[in-house]
Design goal:
Blueprint (H helix, E strand, L loop, with lengths): L7 E5 L1 H8 L3 H15 L3 E6 L2 H14 L5 H15 L3 E3 L5 H14 L3 H13 L2 E3 L3 H10 L6
Helix pairs in contact: 1-2, 1-3, 3-4, 5-6, 6-7
Length: about 150
């Protein structure tokens, strides 16, 4: 990890949190780093409101698809609930103007609508985006707001 300022803010994408809860190594290492920084007060994590539904969906798909046992699911669910209390969620405006801005950004970067929420939040807050999603990485790099993992 590169040296960061004393206090900083990241927008956390569901790809990292979901991978962490499933025990994927790259996500787990990154989340351990981020959680340690949060505990010291050096880091604030922001997420769009849909983040929680996306991560819950990752867990449900894993347990329903047989990739995760019921006991592993329960443990991951408890970790997720702790994470939920330590991140700040934002709900985007549902105005026509906001929707039009989101549409422009999604088309510019060939993003899915729900992924555009992460990039939009990052740009609106002047933060950096932490993601493992290839499309979001490309878009954030072009916008100058990608957190190099």
């Amino acid at each position: 990890m590169t040296a960061e300022p004393k206090s900083w803010t990241l927008v956390l994408d569901a790809s990292i949190a979901g991978g962490w809860l499933l025990g994927e190594q790259q996500s787990s290492e990154l989340m351990q780093f981020l959680l340690a920084r949060m505990e010291t007060g050096d880091l604030e994590l922001l997420v769009p409101g849909l983040f929680f539904d996306e991560v819950l969906n990752v867990l449900l798909k894993a347990v329903h698809g047989g990739r995760m046992s019921e006991s592993s699911y329960r443990l991951a669910w408890e970790q997720f609930l702790v994470l939920e209390t330590n991140v700040r969620a934002y709900q985007h405006s549902i105005s026509v103007a906001a929707l039009m801005g989101k549409e422009v950004l999604a088309r510019k970067h060939n993003l899915r609508s729900y992924d555009t929420n992460y990039l939009l939040l990052t740009l609106e807050t002047g933060s950096r985006l932490a993601t493992l999603d290839d499309r979001l990485i490309r878009a954030a790099r072009l916008e100058g707001c990608y957190y190099e993992l």
